[in-house]
Amino acid sequence: LINFGDQYLVATSDMLFKSAHFPKEMNPKQMGKKAVTVNVSDLAAMGAKPLGIIISLGLPKNMLVDEFDELMDGIIEGCLEYEMMLIGGDTNESQELTICGACLGIVNKDNVLMKSGARVGDIVAVTGPLGLASAGFEILFNNLELSSDLKEIPLKHALNPEARSKEGVLIAEKGYATSATDITDGLAKEIGELIDANSGKIGITIYEDLLPVPEEVIKVAEKTDKDPLDLVLYYGEDFELLLTIDKNIFNQIKDKISLYEIGCVTSSGKIVKISNDGTKKILEARGYEHLSKK
């Protein structure tokens, strides 16, 4: 955060490598757009309106001109979608495609969202369904045979992720949230970061029956012999916002903005999951790097 009059200038940066962040099924245009999306998602988590992005590219020498053009088309498409400028950047030769984005945004000082600030009794909520991106990656990695209606949405979330930019800006402007982050590394890890940001003075309890797990995630988990909750808790790449919200405010806004209540803030200092049968389990604050083995 940089003082900018009565506003903060927010800066963030993400570096993406082809081998670690892009499945082989992702085309250059999708790669370019994802590089923009991951940066904008960081701004959304702070309630900042995107202003522009600087993109630096490490390009393999065997990359085709058409592939480069597609990559740039994706970057420009992302900038247009999030209503911001492509400010500039740099290019150099690299052994593998590398995209480094440095994104700038702006937010009023009174409205900035932080990971700290959650209070005991707050509602814990997310801005959308969970586990769809992980389901999409599992479909790709395992060549799953599913009906087109079950594959369409997961594959879209895996190959064409979207940042919750407008939601983040609105939530910040209205002062709805006490703390926030985006879900990139798995729900459990992001919850752990909220707890750590409050010096461990809070805990968070989530309820299995409240988690918004779509049918597609359950079907993919069945096909791959996985627990659907593992796809939700530890996989990541959802790019939804994770929020803590005063209970009274949540009851006022839950019909005005798409929010899913998943739990509450406690004083336990731990992440606790309550199963459908009432069983309590303490969760580790870990995430899953789903492309690291590829």
Cα radius of gyration in angstroms: 19 Å
Oligomer description = single chain
**Parts with pLDDT < 50 across at least 5 consecutive residues:** none
The computed structural class is alpha+beta
Roughly what percent helix? Answer: 25-40%
Shape: globular
Structure description:
It is built from 10 helices and 12 strands. The chain has helices spanning 18-21, 28-44, 65-81, 132-142, 148-159, 165-174, 187-197, 215-224, 228-234, 247-253, and strands at residues 2-4, 7-17, 49-59, 85-93, 98-108, 123-126, 177-182, 203-207, 241-245, 260-266, 271-274, 280-283. β3 (49-59), α3 (65-81) and β4 (85-93) form a beta-alpha-beta unit. The model has no long low-confidence stretch (mean pLDDT 94).
Gist?
The chain has helices at 18-21, 28-44, 65-81, 132-142, 148-159, 165-174, 187-197, 215-224, 228-234, 247-253, and strands at 2-4, 7-17, 49-59, 85-93, 98-108, 123-126, 177-182, 203-207, 241-245, 260-266, 271-274, 280-283.
What descriptors fit this protein?
single chain; about 290 residues; seven-stranded mixed sheet; 10 helices; globular
Show the helix and strand layout.
Elements: E1 2-4, E2 7-17, H1 18-21, H2 28-44, E3 49-59, H3 65-81, E4 85-93, E5 98-108, E6 123-126, H4 132-142, H5 148-159, H6 165-174, E7 177-182, H7 187-197, E8 203-207, H8 215-224, H9 228-234, E9 241-245, H10 247-253, E10 260-266, E11 271-274, E12 280-283
Parallel strand pairs: 3-4, 8-11
Antiparallel strand pairs: 1-2, 2-5, 3-5, 6-9, 6-10, 7-9, 8-10, 11-12
Helix pairs in contact: 2-3, 2-6, 4-5, 4-8, 5-8
